[in-house]
Amino acid sequence: MPRGSRRPRDRGLYVEIHIDAPMERVWELTQDPHLHARWDARFSKITPTAVRENGAQEFGYELDLGVHTIRGTGVSLGEKRTESGQRTSALLFTTEDPLSPLGDGRGYWRYVPSGNGVRFFTGYDYEPGWGALGRLLDPILTRRLVWWLTAWSFDRLRLWAEQGIEPERVGWWRGWLGGPRASARNCASRPLPQATPPNPGDGVSRSHWSAHPTRIMDDAPHILTELGDVGTILPRQRRTRRRGTHD
């Protein structure tokens, strides 16, 4: 490959798990903001704030770290109807908290019927926080931790959907004491090969489809573009001010 023509590194994160539970149950546990915050360790609280004309849900989120609570805003849009029974959800999020290791981000969830259960997977990417230090630490520390936290949360969701084990019973230390235990090892970190192209109604353009996607965000559903960018979440004057502080 000629010098300078190397493909940019794919920074996107991917997490996939198989959940042996009905689609409706998985959809409920992931789309209800209160239920979502219970199993997803990346959030302590999710509060809906407004609904857009297209049905997109704006929300505020919190992550309580004990000594500090990171707060941010986001918007999500779910889509139920596809020809093959798949469902999708897209998300944008941002924060003005200078202590947050994650800045602006975007991602998607996909729900694919599989046997009696669901292939549930996500792809997402974000801009590192903490300025130059954050950009340095991101590939060697932050992304690894964020992937693990997401995967651990997905397995906690699986236990809830399959066995009715509530997330509060699957804490950081309870598993070591003989209680229910979630494991990030139950999740895949790369997309599985697809034997056939997606159906037109599944939200993936066939012109961009590949049996082995080259980049995680290439598989993002079309509804992600309907959300715009993070500038639609924050008022313009605050967005301009924040850019100025980061430059």
Radius of gyration: 18 Å
Question: β content, as a range?
Answer: 25-35%
> What is the CATH class designation?
Alpha Beta
- The number of strands is 7
Task: Determine the CATH superfamily.
Answer: START domain
What is the succession of H and E elements? EHHEEEEEEHHH
CATH architecture tag:
2-Layer Sandwich
- The CATH topology corresponds to Alpha-D-Glucose-1,6-Bisphosphate, Chain A, domain 4
Q: How far apart are the first and last residues' alpha carbons, in Å?
A: 34 Å
Task: Write down the overall geometry.
Answer: globular
Write down the overall mean pLDDT.
81
Percent helix, as a range, is: 25-40%
| Spatial ordering of strands, largest sheet | 1-7-6-5-4-3-2
What is the number of independent domains?
1
Structural class: alpha+beta
Report the total helices: 5
Low-pLDDT ranges: 1-7, 200-212, 235-242
Description:
- Residues 185-209 are annotated as: Disordered.
- Pfam families: Polyketide_cyc2.
- This is Polyketide cyclase/dehydrase/lipid transport protein.
- InterPro entries: Polyketide_cyclase/dehydratase, START-like_dom_sf.
- The protein is of the alpha+beta class and 247 residues long.
- The protein has five helices and seven strands, in the order βααββββββααα.
- The chain has a seven-stranded antiparallel beta sheet with strand order 1-7-6-5-4-3-2, with helices on one face.
- The two termini are 34 Å apart.
- The model is unreliable at 1-7, 200-212 and 235-242 (pLDDT under 50).
